[in-house]
Amino acid sequence: MRQLSSECTSTELKSARAQRALLVFGGTEQCGPCLPCNIDTLLADFLAQEYATALSAYRLPTIPFNTSQEHGSLAGTLSFSARMMQAISSTLIEQLQQQGYREFIILSPHGGSHWENATVKELNATHPDLTIISAKDGAAASMKSAYQAAGLSDLRGMHGGPMPLYTTAFLRPELIRPGRYGQWSPEQSEMAFNYGLLEALSADGCWGEPVEVKLCELGKYQTIGQKLWSTFAQQQSLHLENTLKRVRTLRAELTCRKL
């Protein structure tokens, strides 16, 4: 079956009678001297492809912006406010509701999208006839399985370390540049991100275990990234399906008790 997306015609989307939609948010923010600014968008595109197929969902086009204010003074960063992200999500869901969609997954792999949980809570409270979940729901367990599959232990970093290198090598290896990036003082993380002082604490804007990027090892990085994200997507798709079913079951039971 052809994946439902904006590449379909209106007639095709209507005849599919899908009830699930996937809202997709990437990100555009600096990632230091060796990696591109669109890593979050690349990852969002990949996960959206996997989730939309596994969950039989209508995949919306990826919005390439997120909340990245702590990187705002560094070249390449473009971001929206949390209020805008919430408004966009709400507006899209209300429009899709008119077209018959009833279950929504908000996909935002960007680590700084703290607006997401508040949005999910508010939309579920104000739209009791709909189900809205975050694609991050239960992600810790899926990531643990992914780490094991890729042969990884803890990857130290909040905006740096080897994780973004493996991700880019898997999705767009030609965008990687050789060199070194990263600085890591975990006790200073709140200062760096919540108080907008990342640039003062990190010379290259990366916050994680220092990494030496060697183009001769791109193949190794790519293999790790492929195992990591393919395993994660498979495990997380199953979890999201179970979450949607569980919400439906609990709501039905609650409705029966109120009758």
TrEMBL record:
Cofactors: Zn(2+)
Annotated keywords: Hydrolase, Metal-binding, Zinc
InterPro entries associated with the record: Creatininase-like_sf (IPR024087), Creatininase/forma_Hydrolase (IPR003785)
Pfam families: Creatininase (PF02633)
Family assignment from sequence similarity: Belongs to the creatininase superfamily.
Lineage, uppermost ranks: Bacteria, Pseudomonadati, Verrucomicrobiota, Opitutia, Puniceicoccales
Species of provenance: Thalassobacterium sedimentorum
Name under which the protein is recorded: Creatininase family protein
Superkingdom of the source species: Bacteria
PANTHER family: 2-AMINO-5-FORMYLAMINO-6-RIBOSYLAMINOPYRIMIDIN-4(3H)-ONE 5'-MONOPHOSPHATE DEFORMYLASE, 3-DEHYDRO-SCYLLO-INOSOSE HYDROLASE
